[in-house]
Design brief:
The chain is α/β, with parallel strands linked by helices. It has two domains: 30 residues, no CATH class; 150 residues, Carbonic anhydrase (Beta-carbonic Anhydrase, Chain A). 45% of the residues lie in helices and 16% in strands. It contains eight helices and five strands. The chain has a five-stranded mixed β-sheet with strand order 2-1-3-4-5. Helix 3 links the parallel strand 1 and strand 2. The longest helix is centred in the first third of the chain and has 18 residues. The chain is globular. The protein binds zinc ion. Zinc ion (ZN) binds next to helix 5. Zinc ion binds next to helix 5.
Length: 186
């Protein structure tokens, strides 16, 4: 894709929005009050805004490989704090997905030096290898997701500032486009 195509798409985007709401960007400039804080994988096929058709301003999003909730990750922790304390989001959605390359690499023990540290973080959220109980990649992705919910519930920032905020777990199915809710609020 050439740079001019991105520019053309951007111009189309502006024109279409202004056709229905000429003041759209004036209002957007006033600030954000997103309802959701979303934690998602960086995978290019799983963009939370695209798959839910939510507009700009609806979701504050943190993405990393394997949608990891890690109390030692400064970037994640800052996003979580900002979402809870400053934006006062109403719900947190942790979104995993099928065919996750991060989960697959962690499970298979990929050893590229630049990846190994992060993959180890993912791996500790997966079950131990058991030859008698083989798990599919998609079952592993769900397992990873469920463990991120547990990680979030024990995150110091969530415990201090997010106790009344619902955590929802969702698995995006790359093969069908479906968003499957795997947990509902307690
Ligand atoms: Zn992924």
């Amino acid at each position: 894709m050439e740079l001019f195509e991105l520019t053309k798409n951007n111009e189309d985007f502006i024109r279409k929005i202004k056709e229905t709401d000429p003041d759209y960007f004036e209002k957007l400039k006033k600030g954000q009050t997103p309802e959701f804080f979303v934690i998602a994988c960086s995978d290019s096929r799983v963009s939370p805004s695209v798959i839910t058709q939510l507009p700009l301003g609806a979701m504050f999003i943190h993405r990393n490989i394997g949608n990891q909730v890690d109390a030692n990750d400064e970037s994640f922790t800052a996003s979580l704090y900002y979402a809870l304390v400053h934006l006062k989001v109403k719900k947190i959605v942790i979104k995993g997905h099928t065919d996750c390359g991060g989960v697959k690499a962690a499970w298979n023990g990929l050893e590229e030096i630049e990846l190994v540290g992060w993959l180890e973080k993912i791996r500790v959220n997966l079950p131990v290898h058991d030859q008698n109980c083989p798990l599919t990649l998609d079952e592993l992705a769900k397992e990873n997701l469920l463990n991120q919910i547990i990680n979030l519930k024990s995150h110091p920032v969530y415990k201090k500032y997010g106790q009344n905020i619902d955590i929802l777990g969702a698995l995006f199915h790359v093969e069908s486009g479906e968003l499957e809710w795997v947990t509902t609020p307690d």
